[in-house]
Structures are given as structure tokens and as C-alpha cells.
Amino acid sequence: MKDNNPFSEDRVSSLGMLRYAEDFFQAYTLLSDKKNNTIQVRYYLICHSLELSMKAVLREAGYSVEQLLKLGHDLEKISRELEQNKDINAKWDEQQKAIIHVANIHYKSKEMEYFAQGTKSLVDFSIFSTFLTIWLRVSHITIMELKKAKKQS
Q1: In this predicted model, what pLDDT tens digit does every residue of 109-138 receive, in sequence order?
Q2: What 3-state class would DSSP assign to 114?
Q3: Selection from 131, 142, 147 nearest residue 50 by Cα
């Protein structure tokens, strides 16, 4: 009988996670093309896309589903894992680190999903969108290179 647990190792692939990341980014883009006041929703979508895409690369590098779940929604922690992993060795410049840091402030605490009073410091959407567009391409290439390396070894 097939395992119906959505978190089982054989049901969570790097390319599947990346596809979800691209879907969340597409949803962000569709909402951004409209004149509306969906700041919280758009910010959640773009942050979640970043989280999923970073975790997709870690998944291809051999991280288990349990390891990914333990990272939580902490974008800075996930980005450090990418930097420290010898197979990935991601390099974030200072602007990218700043984007991840500011995005993380309200994202990891789930403030974009649940109401929290007060003002929020957010990454400018155009800057965040440009960064994420590039990162999604890089993450896809990285996953494909990791797959290729696995086949050769």
C-alpha cells in the first residue's frame, strides 16, 4: 500500500518543491499586476516562494523532509544552510542578505498569515521580485547540476 503521508521521503522531490515555489511566485505576480491593496498576501506569497525554492535546493542536496521541517520558516537560517553546504556553497551578496533579513523579520513569525498590529518594515516589492526571479533560475540550475553530479558518482 502506498504511503499517503504528504511528508514521506518519496513524496517530496526537489523539482516538486521548486514547482510550488514558482506557483507561489506566479500568484504573487498575478496579484501584483492588479491595482489592489493585498500587501500582506503578496508579501506572504513572495516570501513563501523564496522559502520553498531554497528548501528545494537543500532537498536535492540530500536533506531529509524532517531536516527541512526543522528549519521552519526562518529564511535566514535556510539561507545559511545553503551557504554552509559544501555541495551547494551558495554565495549571497550584502544586498541579497539584506533582502532575506528584512523579509524574514515578519515572515518567520507568521505575521503575514495572522494579524499583528503595528507597522512593518518590508522589502520593496520590485527589488524583492527581481531578486526572486533570478534566484528561481539559479535554484533550478543548481538542482539540475546536483542531479547530474549524483548520476556521475
Answers
A1: 887 777 777 778 889 999 999 999 999 999
A2: coil
A3: 131
Distances in whole angstroms, Cα of residue 40 to Cα of each of 123, 125, 147: 12, 12, 36
Contact (Cβ atoms closer than 8 angstroms) between residue 62 and residue 87: yes
Q: How far apart are CA 2 and CA 152, in angstroms?
A: 30
- DSSP designation for 23: H
| pTM of the predicted structure, to 2 decimals | 0.91
| C-alpha span between 62 and 67 (Å, rounded) | 10
A 10 A CB-CB count for 98 gives: 13
pLDDT value for 36: 75
d(CA 149, CA 137): 18
- Please answer whether residues 50 and 104 qualify as being in contact, where contact means their C-beta atoms are separated by less than 8 angstroms: no
